[in-house]
Specification:
The protein is mostly beta strands. It has helices at about 45-50, 165-170, and strands at about 1-15, 20-35, 60, 65-75, 85-95, 110-120, 145-160, 175, 185-200, 200-215, 220-225, 225, 230, 240, 255, 270-275, 275-280. It has two domains: about 1-100, Alpha-Beta Plaits; about 110-220 and about 275-285, no CATH class. The longest helix is centred in the middle third of the chain and has 7 residues, at about 165-170.
Length: about 290
């Protein structure tokens, strides 16, 4: 199963509107998607638009006009075939009055809002990776906490329909591929909300996407490997209390990857845990 994207041509036009004191450059690029699937199967348009080589909304037109951004991308079956798709990407740059609004809600631009979420986070190592351990190699009584903020991106747009199954699949997952310049695993989709709207003769959905970006990533989570029990034999089943007295007294020691105790001066081991599923955010076609 493959999708091959081939460019067809690029056309461009420019106009100058004195009435609104706006200079508008408009461009269009066309592509052909050639697919291969077993008989009686077909791709969804969202899968075609998510393929590598298809422009994304807000991508710049190119070095000749970095101010012209992609405003829409559509994919339609070519005539009399289920394996070939025609893709059209439109670019536009315009400086117009903020009060201007398209009558057709589907022609209004996507809105982005940036904010931050502030909270606290318990940490077990500092910014340089140095673990928070006392001079004897043990844990402090109280785990350090820091003030920590993540960036929140709220994206709102109007669209013809709403696919709840896509929202259910992508919500509470992290990006598996780079997304809007953010590294894989650093963007968490908090949720997707769809509101059915009626405006005059238009029936549409206003869809809101909420994302959180964490520069350190959302997966995997590292936890300092310490415990009250240790293995006597590497990767074995026998264990004993870490206290020299042979009873639990709350003492923690550093543990190696194989479960045996580390010495006070040995480098600590961090266990990694994956907390979030990964998804291709390209299927959202934002």
């Amino acid at each position: 199963m493959t999708i091959i994207i081939k460019p067809v041509y690029a056309s461009q036009s420019a106009s100058h509107t004195l009435d609104n004191f706006a200079y508008v450059n408009e461009y269009m690029r066309q592509f052909v998607a050639i697919t291969s699937l077993p008989p009686n199967q077909s791709y969804e348009d969202t899968e075609i638009l998510a393929a590598t080589g298809v422009p994304r909304r807000f991508d710049p037109f190119g070095p000749d006009d970095l101010g012209a951004l992609c405003v829409s991308v559509t994919a339609k079956h070519a005539a009399d075939t289920d394996t070939v798709w025609n893709i059209e990407a439109k670019y536009k740059t315009q400086s117009a009055s903020p009060g201007d609004q398209k009558e057709n809600p589907l022609e209004r631009p996507t809105k982005w809002r940036y904010s931050s979420v502030r909270g606290t986070r318990t940490v077990d190592k500092d910014r340089d990776g140095k673990p928070f351990l006392n001079t004897a190699g043990g844990m402090f009584r109280d785990a350090p906490e820091i003030i920590y903020s993540t960036s929140r991106y709220t994206v709102t747009r109007n669209q013809l329909g709403f696919r709840a199954e896509v929202a259910d699949t992508v919500s509470n997952t992290v990006n598996i591929t780079p997304w809007f310049g953010k590294s894989p695993g650093t963007v968490l989709c908090e949720g997707i909300q769809g509101d059915e709207q009626y405006e005059g003769e238009y029936h549409f959905w206003t869809v809101t996407f909420v994302f959180h970006w964490d520069r350190y990533g959302w997966r995997p989570t590292e936890v300092l490997n310490m415990g009250r029990r240790q293995l006597l034999v590497a990767n074995g089943d026998e264990d004993e209390p870490t206290s020299a007295s042979g009873v639990y007294d709350g003492t923690f020691v550093k543990l190696a990857e194989d479960g045996t105790a580390l010495g006070p001066q040995d480098e600590p081991w961090y266990e990694k845990f994956n907390l979030y599923d990964e998804e291709h955010f390209e299927k959202l076609v934002i």
